[in-house]
Amino acid sequence: MTMTSLAGIPAKRLAAAADDNLAVHSSWAQEHLPGAHVTRDAGLVVVDSGLPCDTFNFVLRARLDAATAEARVAQAIDHFRRAGRPFSWWVGPADAPENLGDLLRVAGLEAAESEVAMAADLHALPADPAPPRGLEIARVRTPAQLRDFARLLAANWTPPDPHVAQFYEMAAPALLSDDAPLWLYVGYLGDTPVATSELAVGGGVAGLYNISTLPSHRRRGIGRALTLRPLFDARAAGLRLAILQASADGLGLYAQVGFVATGQITEYKPPGEAAP
């Protein structure tokens, strides 16, 4: 898929900003965890949360020289093999070298899934619609709200993944701080939490992640509301562009609110580490 420019931002710069944002989403909370190991340099970001859960262990934002790329790939993979923890390696349009995917396959990883990289001009969002009846969207500010957020995310696995709740419990002091660049949201119907979203501020853009609605409450406009609320907050904070990674199921919704495809992102994993 060919990279696309948006709002006058060249395609390569937009892809690089999206990678920087993904790095904030993937590493900021982990940097505040006891036992976590996060390394970043000009060539690579490696995030080891210390938990046996690839939801929080990543390699990303590769800017590797062709001459040393094979060795850097082997070094990053070996870290997780020695630690005995699962991980995923995300490859996007701005990553280098161009044959990075081939190097990962030669090193023993497999392409697990691909998503569409998308971006939107926050000044071209649709008008703020009335939320679905009874829906209240709360920016996470309290430990109880954070537990609701974690429980909803954990429910994306069958059975629910206990490491998700553990991660957010450990990261709570950082995530609940006023200066956290990760803004978490929970949608409630009455007292019942039914949906989540996250906005990461980094790379000069707003990144949307963890948009999730309980299966029993889908197709009611709740996901759209949880998508738009963080975007409006980001625009009010002075940001101009938003980015996200969309599965096939979410493409229609994101296109409706103004997102356009800008490229493709592929997740690589060791054999046997299936996605939830």
TrEMBL record:
<feature type="domain" description="N-acetyltransferase">
    <location>
        <begin position="136"/>
        <end position="276"/>
    </location>
</feature>
<dbReference type="InterPro" id="IPR016181">
    <property type="entry name" value="Acyl_CoA_acyltransferase"/>
</dbReference>
<dbReference type="InterPro" id="IPR038740">
    <property type="entry name" value="BioF2-like_GNAT_dom"/>
</dbReference>
<dbReference type="InterPro" id="IPR000182">
    <property type="entry name" value="GNAT_dom"/>
</dbReference>
<dbReference type="Pfam" id="PF13480">
    <property type="entry name" value="Acetyltransf_6"/>
</dbReference>
<dbReference type="GO" id="GO:0016747">
    <property type="term" value="F:acyltransferase activity, transferring groups other than amino-acyl groups"/>
</dbReference>
<protein>
    <recommendedName>
        <fullName>N-acetyltransferase domain-containing protein</fullName>
    </recommendedName>
</protein>
